[in-house]
Specification:
There is one protein chain. By secondary structure, the chain is an alpha/beta fold. It has one domain: Histone deacetylase domain (Arginase, Chain A, 3-Layer(aba) Sandwich). Helices cover 37% and strands 16% of the residues. It is built from eight helices and ten strands. α1 crosses α8 and α6 runs parallel beside α7. The longest helix is centred in the first third of the chain and has 20 residues. Bound molecules: zinc ion (ZN). Zinc ion binds next to loops.
């Protein structure tokens, strides 16, 4: 398992009170490095995403970000989504991790990779930043796997507590992709559930949802669809803000649920996608539990 991470992801800082903070990566890396699976992990620094590789996004939106970077002033692109001089480089490192990981997986250097990166990506729309996200890391990775390696069936599993609306916005109606997103509902970003395209699976779950109900829903609605789809590659938007201690949302998942997700996804990958899984960090804001949750998930992937 290769862990992709970059110090460039730390320079984007939206303020001391903002939950999407650089310390998130520190607690994850500390948990991994002091764990009993430490010997099974290798670390790599991603290449920065080239702006032409950002083709999952509208070209004018990317140009707009480049102009903002040149201005160097802090700008709110969304009420809680601040862009500053360091943001685009951090976002290019985060999305670049997906591209570097796809290259490593497709060249059989590794079967599995985890991108411990920020800013997260799954709320970023085709032409707009949203919800702490600027570039849609998982959509860029999927786009790279399709355009460079000709993959025709990619499953994206999104278990962040928030709906992956940006990913849906970018991949809707692309028959090469199946996107299954579980999310607290009703809740931010308040997606209209009636509008889903054929390649999109919504798994709305109420506040208070805990492990038994969550696992049942994932099995019946997400993983059953993934099996029928027979993916060549599995991508995971791995958000850990469904944890019961997370301050931003209301699910009651625990580390054992993340272990179960990792183990189940690993088995799916073995059965259908030559073991290939790329997971990319999305949310997860409880600094005292985030590291343990990510570790449990990766232990599951390695089980
Ligand atoms: Zn989230």
């Amino acid at each position: 398992m290769i862990i992709y991470t970059s110090d460039l992801c730390l320079a984007h800082n939206m303020g001391a009170q903002h939950p999407e903070c650089p310390e998130r990566l520190g607690v994850i890396l500390q948990a991994l490095k002091s764990s009993r699976i430490a010997q099974q992990l290798t670390y790599a620094t991603p290449d920065l995403l080239t702006l032409t590789a950002a083709a999952a996004h509208d070209n004018n939106y990317i140009k707009h970000l480049v102009q903002l970077e040149r201005l160097g002033e802090t700008t709110a692109l969304d009420p809680d989504t601040l862009f500053m001089a360091e943001t685009l480089t951090a976002a290019r490192a985060a999305a670049g991790a997906g591209v570097s990981a796809i290259d490593a997986i497709m060249s059989e250097q590794t079967q599995q990779a985890f991108a411990a990166v920020r800013p997260p990506g799954h709320h970023a729309l085709h032409n707009r930043a949203m919800g702490f996200c600027f570039i849609n890391n998982i959509a860029v990775a999927a786009h790279h796997a399709m355009t460079h390696y000709g993959l025709e069936r990619i499953a994206i599993i999104d278990f962040d507590v928030h709906h992956g609306n940006g990913s849906e916005n970018i991949v809707a109606n692309d028959p090469r992709i199946l996107l299954c997103s579980a999310f607290q509902h009703p809740f931010y970003p308040n997606t209209d559930l009636a509008q889903a395209a054929d390649n999109i699976v919504h798994i709305p779950l109420a506040a208070g949802t805990a492990g038994t109900e969550f696992r049942q829903a994932m099995q019946q609605l997400a993983f059953a669809r993934v099996k029928k789809f027979t993916p060549q590659l599995i991508l995971v938007s791995a958000g850990f803000d469904g944890h019961r201690r997370d301050p931003l949302a209301g699910w009651n998942l625990v580390d054992d649920d993340y272990f179960w997700l990792g183990a189940t996804i690993n088995q799916l990958a073995k059965d259908y996608s030559h073991g290939r899984v790329l997971s990319m960090l999305e949310g997860g804001y409880a600094l005292d539990t985030l590291g343990g949750s990510v570790l449990a998930y990766i232990e599951g992937l390695l089980s």
